[in-house]
Amino acid sequence: MDKVVRLVSERGVVLFSKSTCCLCYAVKILFQELGVTPTVHEIDQDPEGRELERALMRLGCKAPVPAVFIGGKLVGSTNEVMSLHLSGGLIPLLKPYQALC
Amino acid sequence: MGLRAAGNLFQLPFKQKDFKLPNAYNINLTCTKATSIISSRSMDFPSAQFVPSRTMGNYEPIHQIGMWGENFKSIDNPDISASVIVDVANKLENESETTSHEMLAPSSKHDQEASKPFDKIQRRLAQNREAARKSRLRKKAYVQQLENSRLKLIQLEQELERARQQQGLYVGGGLEAGHLGISSAVNSGIAAFEMEYERWMEEQNKHMCELRSALHAQISDIELHILVETGMSHYFELFRLKSNVANADVFYVMSGTWKTSVERFFSWIGGFRPSELLKVLVPKIDPLTDQQILEVCNLKQSCQQAEDALSQGMEKLQETVSASLASGQMGQVTYIPQVSMAMEKFEALVRFVNQADHLRQETLQQMSYILTTRQSARALLVLGEYIQRLQALSTLWTNRPREPA
């Protein structure tokens, strides 16, 4: 859990993913379209992956990936990200982290 | 009209044991003599080929009637009475009793036929008609019984599967029986869904009617709001049903098997594409305020982006499954590892289907927030009608006249 907290407070937009997970890939694509480059942690490639997975699940991520944090706060999994985006609430959250182009 | 009636009266349900008919008859009936039939009992028939079918066990005289009808067209006097018909039957019966495999020579035999009593014939015809009617009723009852049995069978299968799962038992033992158990769970899941979907469609049509009349009547916004909420919940219910059957068989949902072919044509990950839906709905819900137009525009864009993300995720899934299956050397005796790897990937497919339905649900929800109650009601109506039109197109397409190959 400590590691999770540490990782998410480091950068703005953090995505916990697995390299084999195609739904995680979809979330990455979405962020890309919105002009954001999240910090991605592939937990299946992390030696402490198991611990991370357990920690994420304890935080409420059933899946456990994809898990999205913005500004240190848990947004949720794909459902929450999609709902937030459709309601127009995602982009304001991402504003400070969007690439300047 | 009388001619056609004549054709119908004269059913020719010849059982082979009753009438020994030659293969073909030439029967002559001239129109000028039609009115004098009752009195004189002498007739000439126009040339007509009457070919009784050899397989007449089922009382199907339709093509014979057709032939009769065709030939009666040439007759000027439409009032040909039943006695004409009777006399023809009379004639035919006599032929079967006297000669066989002979062509009728009408002129010489007329007086002979006319003298036979026709009560016997009438009775025979009536019996035949009655027997035909009874046979049709029996067939109808039998088909009804079959339909009921089929439904009962589906129910029993479902019950059996439920009982099995509760007890954790499979009939017999070993992998094979276990496999059987799993596939029947799939079947019962699908059967359950199809029944539920049928009910859902009936409910949907009822909702549509209620909405339609509510919009025309002067009901309060509060009452209308309740109807809108009911309509929305109904769609959410469908997503829930789909989620259940996706766990049983995700490809069933992906293929949209329960839908009409035109609906499937427009399908995206097992259902309608939210952005497409917005394109259909929005022009029909005029007038929108500027604020609403902006919000709808943003919603459309968000939908589009979410859809793109999911579509690309699906493509990635295809690539990884394909790569798994193709890995290693081809021409090997066993490819179980590759197939097992691919199987794991398919678990993700269920998540995608659920995600797509979630997107549809969110789109409907957001629209209900942006629009007024009245506008939402209208939107639901438009959506329902659009789906009905898709289904109608499907039916029309399936039944379109086609050139024989």
TrEMBL record, chain A:
Which InterPro entries does the UniProt entry name for this protein?
GlrX-like_pln_2, Glutaredoxin, Glutaredoxin_subgr, Thioredoxin-like_sf
**Keywords on record:** Cytoplasm, Redox-active center
Name of the featured protein = Glutaredoxin domain-containing protein
Q: What is its main location?
A: cytoplasm
Protein family (similarity comment)? Belongs to the glutaredoxin family. CC-type subfamily.
Organism annotation? Hibiscus sabdariffa
PANTHER family (UniProt xref): GLUTAREDOXIN
* Residue ranges annotated for the Glutaredoxin domain, each copy included: 13-75
Extract the Gene3D superfamilies matched here: Glutaredoxin
User: Could you tell me where this protein is found in the cell?
Assistant: Cytoplasm
UniProtKB/TrEMBL annotation, chain B:
Record bears the keyword Nucleus = yes
Coiled-coil segments: 139-166
Q: Which SMART domains match?
A: BRLZ
The protein's matches in InterPro entries, at most eight in alphabetical order, are given as: bZIP, bZIP_sf, TGA_domain
Its main subcellular localisation, reduced to a broad class, is: nucleus
Q: Which UniProt keywords apply?
A: Activator, Coiled coil, DNA-binding, Nucleus, Transcription, Transcription regulation
Q: Which residues form the BZIP domain?
A: 118-162
Query: Region Disordered: start and end of each range?
Result: 96-117
Q: What is this protein called?
A: Transcription factor TGA1-like
Q: Which organism is it from?
A: Hibiscus sabdariffa
